[in-house]
Design a protein that fits this description.
This protein is an alpha+beta fold. It folds into two domains: 62 residues, Orthogonal Bundle (Arc Repressor Mutant, subunit A); 156 residues, Chorismate lyase (3-Layer(aba) Sandwich), CATH 3.40.1410. It contains eight helices and eleven strands. The chain starts with 8 loop residues before the first helix and ends in a 9-residue tail after the last strand.
């Protein structure tokens, strides 16, 4: 199994800045594009691209003529950007953690094979976690990944660490995804793990994430209590017919 270890330079800068932001307070100044160029040995365009991605995630405020600063954390995640649960909770000032419910390598079901563009029975690795913030349960997450990710997933600390950081460290660069959001009633398992009543409203997000080559890497279902989680949406208004 061959894994490309190439990570774009702007992603290296972006990840480094995300770690710094987690230790800073809203309003703290961040390096300028010129300072990033000197620190990382990159072009101004590369530095600007990294900072712009952080601004799009709501982590950075860029003020013309003044510089870039740590932004006030928004109350919810933006629906058009995916941030790891670990970073999302840290951005809100909460301590993220997880309880591992299961981790297994097995053959893909027909549905899993379709989502990940594999053959039926091809190897996949699946993890199930109860995601928590300040020890309060926030979500039940089931992530199914292509078998080529198995070594990274099996070695990762999935109770205190980030799955996506483990994948990035193993050379997998996640780039784009698609997803759907729906409302369902809490099942018995939802109620037991999340401290709900059977039938309570739930927000369910299902997504597929692809790498830089367009190959599906991860298919995930996240189940949230409707009163503990929300997604912010921005949109364009179409003109009249």
């Amino acid at each position: 199994m061959t894994i490309s270890a190439f990570v774009p330079q702007y992603r290296v800068i972006e990840q480094a800045l995300r770690e710094r932001i987690g230790r800073l307070r809203p309003g703290d100044r961040l390096p300028s594009d010129a300072e990033l160029c000197e620190e990382f040995g990159v072009s101004r365009m590369t530095a600007r691209n990294a900072m712009q991605r952080l601004a799009e995630d709501g982590l950075v405020s860029r003020l013309p003529g003044r510089g870039s600063f740590v932004a006030m954390p928004p109350s919810h995640r933006r629906a058009n950007r995916l941030m790891t649960f670990t970073r999302e909770m840290a951005r809100r000032g909460l301590q993220p953690s997880s309880r591992l419910l299961g981790r297994v390598v097995r053959g893909a079901t027909d549905g899993e094979a379709t989502a990940l563009e594999l053959g039926p029975g091809d190897p996949i690795v699946q993890i199930r976690r109860l995601r928590c913030a300040d020890d309060a349960p926030i979500a039940i997450e089931t992530a199914t990944l292509a078998g080529r990710c198995a070594d990274a997933v099996l070695a990762a600390d999935l109770e205190h660490g980030s799955l996506h950081e483990a994948l990035t460290g193993a050379g997998f660069t996640l780039r784009r995804g698609t997803g759907t959001i729906s409302a369902v009633a809490a099942t018995n398992e939802d109620a037991q793990l999340l401290g709900l009543e059977l039938g309570d409203p739930m927000l369910v997000e299902r997504r597929v994430i692809r790498d830089t080559h367009g190959r599906p890497v991860e298919s995930t279902e996240s189940r949230y209590p409707a009163d503990r989680y929300a997604l912010d949406v921005s949109f364009d208004v179409e003109g009249p017919d």
